[in-house]
Amino acid sequence: MDKPCPVPGSLLQGSWSKAEPRFMNHRVPSNRRYQPTEYEHAANCATHAFWILPSILGSSILYILSDDQWETISAWIYGFGLSSLFIVSTIFHTISWKKRHLRTMEHCLHMFDRMVIYFFIAASYAPWLNLRELGPWASHMRWIIWIMASIGTVYVFFFHERYKLVELVCYVIMGFFPALVILSMPNRDGLPELVAGGLSYCLGMVFFKSDGRIPFAHAIWHLFVAIGAGIHYYAIWRYLYRPGALETKTSR
């Protein structure tokens, strides 16, 4: 009986790559990182790169509209956090896509990308905590939020990608816990927008953990982040910085 002819490894690899779906790869175990397809890589880059210039422009507008030192400081903090989120994410996904041999750089950028999320959350709260009157206990949140961001950064440094569910829970806690201070604000203008933006982030988390289950899941998560950030920016501009919004502010 004839023996089967051995198939070269390169041919097997080529056949396997052709069999792979274009828009989604197989799901990986929790201790490994999902490898996007070429199309998913491109979508991951585009869905955050598009918002870099608008975030910088929007931050500049808040700076121009600032009337005092606290408004200027808050505009800088918020603008830096907002712009950094999109810039770092775009750089990481671009390196991950086009420079796959730079594994050390990719790993560091991935850690940095996750760390920036903590500071973005803190920066998003900064204008509200700095420019609105808070209750006695809630005023401590102005510095507690930055301690939480620092703890999250340390956690990523030591336990990056080890306990993904814990990391997700940390993001959720930091995202919602400071929102409780809104209950102590005499002026609650902007509350519907803050809730709408928060809901956008929450809906996006469904896709954040759906790589390998839903095509372009991470890119869809990026879009929900952009929508949430846009809603929150609008609220900050309208109720804290827009000319004529002085009536909505109270002494700090």
Automatic annotation (TrEMBL):
Matches recorded under InterPro entries: AdipoR/HlyIII-related (IPR004254), Hy-lIII (IPR005744)
GO cellular component, one term: endomembrane system
One GO MF term: pore-forming activity
Sequence intervals crossing the membrane: 42-64, 76-96, 108-128, 140-158, 165-185, 220-240
Chief location: membrane
Membrane topology reported for the UniProt record: Multi-pass membrane protein
Swiss-Prot/TrEMBL keywords: Membrane, Metal-binding, Transmembrane, Transmembrane helix, Zinc
Binding site for Zn(2+): 93, 218, 222
Assigned protein family: Belongs to the ADIPOR family.
Protein name: Monocyte to macrophage differentiation associated 2
Native source species: Accipiter nisus (Eurasian sparrowhawk)
Lineage, broadest ranks: Eukaryota, Metazoa, Chordata, Craniata, Vertebrata
